[in-house]
Amino acid sequence: MSVKAVLHSEWTKIRSLPSLMIALLSGLVATTGVTALVSATHDGKESGADFDPVFFSFFGLNFGQIAAICFGVLAVANEYAGGGIRVWLAAVPRRGLYYGCKLAVVGLCALAVGLVTGFASLLGGQALLGEQGVGPGAPGALRAAVGCGIYLALLTVLSAGVAAVLRGPVGALGLLVPLVCFLSPVLGDGPATRFLPDRAGQQVLHATPEGPLGPWTGLGVLALWAAAAVWAGRLALGRRDA
Amino acid sequence: MTSQTSIDVHQLTKDYGVVRAVDRLTFRVLPGRVTGFLGPNGAGKSTTMRMVLGLDRPDSGTATLGGRPYRELDEPLRHVGALLDAGAAHGARTARDHLLCLAFSNRITAARVDTVLEETGLAPAAERRVRTFSLGMRQRLGIAAALLGDPPVLMLDEPANGLDPEGIVWIRTLMKRLAAQGRTVLVSSHLMAETALTADHLVVLGRGRLLADTPMETFVREHSRPRARVRTTEPERLRSELARAGLTAEPDGPDHWTVDRAAPDDIGALAARHGIPVLELAEDKASLEEAYLRLTADRAEFTTSRPAPAPGSTRANTAKQEV
Lengths: 242, 323
Hints:
The structure holds 2 protein chains of 2 kinds. Chain A is an all-alpha fold.
């Protein structure tokens, strides 16, 4: 079987489902839109030494990342709808090949849209911040924009892996949205909280990250979460009857 | 004598918890004929097909295509076309996109997708989303998917489901044509009348076990009793004479009587001896349904909890009058 052919098939699956394209693009719209809104209305009261204009540009990511989770979950869970997985696995019976190609395409789509999101948020946000804004040349700014793309891609792949384990959208979203979006705000600033997927992965968005994790090691921790989910999904797909 | 395109199932066994869905099943499906795959619901037909396709893992035994397991086939859609479930296409995709996703994975061209859409009568609906399709159209889409790779082996699970009468004739003709082209065609069904018109060979399952693997004609002959149908002006006299000869005549429509375990020769001779006028006398051809029900009734351990039907009470082609 040709890897290129399977990648082509997987890309066609995403392109041909309106819900997936909407989920993918709504991450871009939500992140940049919310960032633009808060940046334009920012009154400068927080502008102490603590104010991080770079991180402020990614405020919208709190909303955009939900779209990334949905995209990752739906890209996999849709395959199971109505027993459809049997059709796809009959066409590509090598499950590792099928799964690998799907995750590659899903991850690359998220990375491409995530990078656009990162740069649009940074540039738009800084422009709207006015005199408090910094240019793309400021320390950590470009790194944060690229990091935003990688963050969204890893989060998407993590979600896809979880969906492969649970084989449906409801359970996967029910697990991921609280884990990624609500757990770290609820738990506060504990030492363990820093290693949660969102908190660790968002280190890269700060101009000067604090705590034990640096920008890239933080993304590394998120990558480990994603790898664990991908591995669990691979085991589930390989073992279970379709 | 494994053929390049035969389906070989050998000692195949599958358990779901404590239920044995498929039990040491062994049979071979050969090319060039339509093989009907029969059995009541839950007999293991679909499970067997899924194991042949490498979707479900057998607990023991093997299922191969031309000697190779499905998972080892390169670009399997070019070897085997399968229809498993009409609901399997995502409702939000168009029919053409659904087929394109399948085709591209096996390096099948978009032109071939348009050909199968044409062949299955879906070309006018190609750009419509699958959720707007009727069950019959979904079924046609599933068959289009099975035909994509122009495969030498076809496995169709209940292909006539949801098809209108015209569609049923179409699928029947299609299967016969595919078999005549030398392909291997395995068709599961619970519609006996339909299978009788389509299949040349039968594989019959009951509770996961093989009950029969024989040509259609042999199957019907072996699992039915001779029976004659007679019309007379003196039914009462004929009946008592038959009873004296040890035969029972049952009324079967106005003026008609059927006689179990009797050939027309016997009845004709008997009627002539007693001077009973006979207006009609014919051999009553047993139907596949009747033979099938008799087989499952004979193997009482394989029948479900419902009582075994009495012979003659469930005949396909005769509208029996209540007496």
